[in-house]
Amino acid sequence: MYASREDIGYDFGDDSKVGSKPIKPNPNIDGGWAWMIVFSSFLVHILIMGSQMALGILNMEWLEEFNQSRGLTAWVSSLSMGITLIVGPFIGLFISMCGCRMTAIIGGILNALGWILSAYASNVHYLFLTFGVTAGIGSGMVYLPAVVMVGQYFQNRRALAQGLSTTGTGFGAFLMTALLKYLCTEFGWRNAMFIQGAISLNLCVCGALMRPLSPKELREKYVVGNDSEENRAKALSQSTETIKSNGVLGEEPEKKEEAANEEVLGSVQHIEIGGKSGSERSMYGLRLFKTVSQLTVTVRKGFALWYSSYFGAASLFTNRVFVAFIIWALFAYSSFVIPFIHLPEIVKQYKLSRQDNVFPLTSIIAIVHIFGKVILGIISDLPCISTWNVFLMANFTLVTCILTLPLMQTYIGLAVVCALIGFSSGYFSLMPVVTEDLVGTKHLANAYGIIICANGISALFGPPFAGWIYDITQKYDFSFYIAGLLYMVGIIFLLIQPCIQKKQSREKSTEEAQV
Predict the structure, then answer these.
(1) What's 28-212's CATH class?
(2) On the CB side of 437, how many CA atoms lie within 13 Å of its CA?
(3) What are the extents of the domains in the chain?
(4) Mean pLDDT of the chain
(5) From 1.20.1250.20, 3.30.70.60, 1.20.120.140, 3.40.50.620, which CATH number describes the 313-504 domain?
(6) Which of 34, 40, 449, 472 has an alpha carbon 20 to 30 Å from 229's alpha carbon atom?
């Protein structure tokens, strides 16, 4: 889905060599440079997701500076967080054309530019464009390649690698909350955003570390470790099928591209022959025409692959349980994001700033969130435990915490609830597993992209909705109650649809038996 020729490669022309020669293990698959990719992805999660989870600090500064409503001001944070996830499917187009490394480097520059330009904001609407849109798109351009590259470099340890890299979100939320609070206190929020923009340039370094795999390395990734010729052929077939599903390899697109290239080269050669006696200007026009032609072919192919990857997956929506999963995703993520944005102001209203300065509540969520991901992952891997049941129990715990949080008005009570929110939200690490169980491995990439996009929509509208409710009621209580109830509706959809599907399957089996 997000792969490109540069990042994966597809040269499987010499199949006989694969079957006749034993391939030595590549030290960069499941080891070597692969761990540098994990480190790069870990830093990306710290600098992007961690910074977004710490935006509650800046949200208070913007409320005081611009004196706007809480609902309007919250749009700045939610735009940045939502766009980062929503643009995921569209960033796949850039990755298809220029690879993960270049996409991430451009995104790092764009993200840093958004932070720096936001330091000169004169109103909230200016922040919508600079921080919400610019920094948000930049974050999406780095975040997606960071996730994709880990999957490319790991075969046997993929779950471990993804788990280690995503823990950067928890570490980042803890570190960035403390950093932004310190910078705002010492230098003011404008200088804090300028400094954070300079720090975000390190995303370009993270992108530079994303060295694309060569075709030979990718071939070894799938074939190595299979002793018999039959297993090797099976692994080769699997790698070819995987790349086809990701929109990289296909006979018809390849033939079309070759025909297009031959047509372009034929035209160029014809012009070149006639241009030998021409002037330097005609030669310059020839080179320009050659470059534009190659670029056009690359863009057309990249768009075709991207379009087929996403919009060719319409069969996913015939799966009612998956549709229920999408509905759940539209409500779930906002319940996790709202506390990060509005908790600092809630603490200020309850006059608990002194205790919160010692150990911020958002930092408690972030730290426990790390352990939640690891522990829930270990529990779900037990042979006697169902991943689906662990996923549902974690969701029930989280929605209960969201509904009870407004009832806590002491620091200890809020800290306990925040710890439970952090632990139960560790179910994020189970989402790829649950998605794969629903749609199968073949459609996993497309399905997970849709789920992430739904999460982005949830993050986009959640915080402004909570701020708007506060502007009407002058309390955050109803914001959490409504968000919790909507979240509960999503969970109910997850519970009902599998039961309906099982009932329909039993009825269908009974009818077939009678016939």
Answers:
(1) mainly alpha
(2) 13
(3) 28-212, 313-504
(4) 76
(5) 1.20.1250.20
(6) 34
